Amino acid sequence: MRRDALILLAITVLAAALRLYRLDSGLWYDEVLTLVDFVRLPVNEIVTTYTSLNNHVLFTLQAHASVALFGESAWAVRLPAAIFGIATVPLTWLLVRRIGAPMAWAHVTALLVAVNYHHIWFSQNARGYTGLVFWCLAATICFVEGGRRPDWRPWLWFSLAAAAALYTHLSAAFFLIGLALVYLVFAVARRPALPGLASAMPLIALPLTALFVLLAYAPMIPDMIAAFSEVAAPEANTATGEEAMAVWRSPIWTLLEILRSLPLPLPLTLVALPVLLLVFGLGFWRVWRLHPPVALLVPASIAVTFAILTAGGMRLWPRYFIVDLPLLLLFATAGAAGLAALLGRIRLPARGLTVAFWTLGIAASTVWAAKNYTAPKQDFAGAVALVEAESGPGAVRASLGLAATPISAYFAPDWDVLDSPAELDAALSGAAEVWIVWAFDDHTRDTRPEIMERIDRDFDRVARLPGTLGGGSVYVARSRETGT
User: Fold this and answer.
1) What backbone phi and psi angles, to 5 degrees, belong to 50?
2) Rounded mean pLDDT of the chain?
């Protein structure tokens, strides 16, 4: 036990190091909106304002406290996300042990979470997603404990964890609905090994969770109705009046974005996909043999998320599935052992193959995790610094499209914002040179095609500053007339 505790401590320290290193890199679009629109508000306004989905309320309160303690900086506003990201590692270990998995599975799964690229990325993201993962894991542990015996106490703790998850991010409802469906399946099945699920005790959780959440969100309900109506409505293209970036609502786009985020190029990922699916399938089966409800929770949660977002016309961001990541990594751990066992039937060394597969997965994940430190999520700060250094006296410095909000509200409030061809004409006619910064190139071209055509024709592309955010590169261009 001492050795296992030391191993878990070492894994947690590693997770902390990976999440705290370069925590102060430049903020990206959503982080700036969170900081400017919500974190800076007084507490009484944070808990009563829900003008957009960027207010992950419990996270906002935590970030507000962090900024109050340490001053406003990128690392301070991200610190709560990093803390919850670190805490998720031992909590994952605890869940794996609670379902009766071998100690080696717990260590390997916790280590995979510690070095996972996506989990590190969200741990250094000033949003509530790692808090969401933490509280949903805590609710799952309470669910497992509540299934062991008819007792009301695990369900009280479940309600508190579920309410905290929902107060952090409302997408927790997808995971919790999936958990409720799993409960219904096994309550009807009345499995002898899960007497707690066959009792009436779990029904305590529904009214308690609803009460806690209603009390927390009551001051925001009018704002929330308006915010969700706006998100569900198609985004109008300012030039054509048609819906912009409808692809964001496509399940196929979501699946491709998830596959693109994996370490291999997409064509190689597609080639390796059958093997990956085999590993996850074997992992599902092995976890099912230990604890069927936890195994079923992952497909239930994913299916519910897709169904609700698609039916509601919402955007299918891949980040809505981050809550399933620890259990998917458990499937990978168990599935690698299962694949080794299958190969062992043809006289290959199953134990040695298990260690080899785990080592390969951990090594690949560690190399992949290093990508987090190759660039900021979005390099608005670098773009602004480049323009400030290179532009001459009397130059117009402007932002365009989605980049306008973070630049005008945070990075360079004195810059102009271009929103129409007429404003671009005015800038070109009144200045020696014009510098323009934009991001999310596809979205900008879709919503402001006339301006982008002018930039392609009359400007020199000075720089493309990459970021770890998918499609989040920041671009800098300078007017050609007097720029050479």
Assistant:
1) -140, 60
2) 91
